[in-house]
Amino acid sequence: MKKILLIDVDCGVDDAQAIMMAIASPSVEIVGITCCYGNSLLENTCRNVLRVLHVCDKLEIPVYPGASAPILGGPVSGAFYHGKDGLGDVPDPGAPGLDLLQKEHAVLAILRIANERPGQVSLVAIGPLTNLALAVRMDPELPKKLKSVFIMGGNTESRGNTTVCGEFNFVCDPEAAYIVLNEYTCPTYIATWEFTCSCPLTWEFYHEWVDQNTKKARFMKKISAHSLEFSQTLGRDLIGEEWRSGFVSCDSYAMAAATDENFITEVKVVGVSVELQGSLTRGMMVVDWTDKLKKANKTFVMTNCDVGKLQALMMAALK
Ligand SMILES: [Ca+2]
């Protein structure tokens, strides 16, 4: 049976990589892609999804515009990493127009699709969690109608990539991350920032991957040139000395887990939440290692994976 995925993105370069992985997987049916601000403005993230679908000849997948700002406060700028437009600021004169977007709002689409296929749909959330939080506010029963949720975000060792202790997706909208971690009671799998950094691919793999002679690989090489340069220079300081060794496509880890149940080889089953008030820690994922919160719904926090499987899934994505 195919895995039915509804993908929520803030389409930067690694979101594009994750979407292309899902499209290439014969075991996946994508029922829609919902968009959120994050790596760029909402308008850009919507356009980026359409550009990815265009290069994959999959424009029939419906794309829904969602939240343009977090629940509280203003957007966090992520433009330094994926370029101002979210996909490396390369010209794309053939980009599809925004008229191809669905008229339905992303939050309404999430609720409708979950109602149409109760117990079957897995949400893959690889941007700020604003759309997911608004959806559960509109229908508190939503988590019961989902099969599972896969999230890229948060952290386990207070090693921030955006603030001292905070990971980008959670820091963008701490309230939304808090709502999702506390109210999505369906099986929830999290690929944290530290987890993705601890299982990097090699730069040799990256070059072999983007140098495949295909339309998709040429597109990927073009859009990832900006973030490649960034992660090999300035961005090295995002990670810290001991983890500066490779190519990390953060969102692809969450997607690989949703696509292939054998990808994750180790998880910790723990309660998690998000700090909302700390002056240094707002947006940090809090891991309740000793179960003091006594949370009924525990989360599967990924701690190890099959990197060979990830490479195979990513290679297939650009064929
Ligand atoms: Ca993302």
TrEMBL record:
Transmembrane segments: none annotated. Pfam families: IU_nuc_hydro. CDD domains: nuc_hydro_CeIAG. InterPro entries: Inosine/uridine_hydrolase_dom, IUN_hydrolase, Ribo_hydro-like. Residues 5-310 form the Inosine/uridine-preferring nucleoside hydrolase domain. SUPFAM superfamilies: Nucleoside hydrolase. GO terms for molecular function: hydrolase activity, hydrolyzing N-glycosyl compounds. Gene3D superfamilies: Ribonucleoside hydrolase-like. Belongs to the IUNH family. This is Inosine/uridine-preferring nucleoside hydrolase domain-containing protein.
